[in-house]
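Worked Example 4.2. Consider the chain below.
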Amino acid sequence: MAPRKRPLVALTLSLLLVLSGCVSLPQSGEETPGEYEVTITRVIDGDTVEFEYANGTTDTARLVGVDTPEVHTANQPADFEGVPDTEAGKDCLRDWGHRASEFVRSRVLGETVRIELDPSEGPRDRYDRLLAYLYVDGDLLNHELLELGYATVYETDFEQRDSFDEAEASARDEGLGVWECRDPGSTSGSEGPLAVVEVNADAPGDDRENLNGEYVVFENVGDERLELGGWRVEDEAGRSYEFPGGTVLDPGEPVTLYTGSGQDSDSDLYWGANQPIWNNDGDVVLVYDADWNLVVEYEYSGSGSVAAAVGRDADPVSATEPVVNLR
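Applying the procedure from the previous section yields the following structure tokens:
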């Protein structure tokens, strides 16, 4: 009788499956400290991303050791040393939360990156998110967020705690990012030239079949020509539109951004989305300039054809009155 070869065959087959990416990587409750190459598919906020493994399975990661301001829920100024527990302090943190999300989105969305687990952590938090260090082009994104002032250190024990504490202290001493919020009145700046003058969030009929019945009207309320090429418009969920190069508004000139598709002109632009963008029951119109500075934050509520708007530093006003940018 020939010798049995099944164990060798099984081992060879297992190795081939692993190398081909057909075997799932460790999932919830089974991870051991290691590293993986993954592709970032969504940025939820400044410290949370969704990603896909090489074998096609998906997961959510919470960046180890950092805490960026919230954009979907209320902020607690007590989490950020020295930030006053006032509306101005909370609004300032929310502003920087959006900036942190945009920074992370610009760095990693759609990119293949390396994630590493920390032997001292998790591997998952109570929301079942993988706790990870995220490296992009060899740089540790977690550390970058602290260096640039987009985050504070999350109070847990992890291997790189000392270097993270040093990065936060340096940013705090220089008053970078969220640490501007320790004196939120000094960061308001002067009103800028771009304003949202109308939001039509509830299109006539079925919103999904009338995408161009949904639109936002912007206006240059300044005294000089305003070049918008490279500026980005976002909703609170992070869906994004970039103004095309050559988009220029003269003083007093409006431009309408429609959700659906069409031919761009000087007065009309088209997002090209295949579904509604602006929530009928309230949303936030965010505009970032070409350097990723948040320059407009326009919040509206209600499901009327023209929604009421609330600016960060303003009382409720009608949507026909412009709420100008924040900085």
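The two ends are 84 Å apart (CA to CA). The longest strand covers residues 35-45. Compare this with Example 4.1 before moving on.
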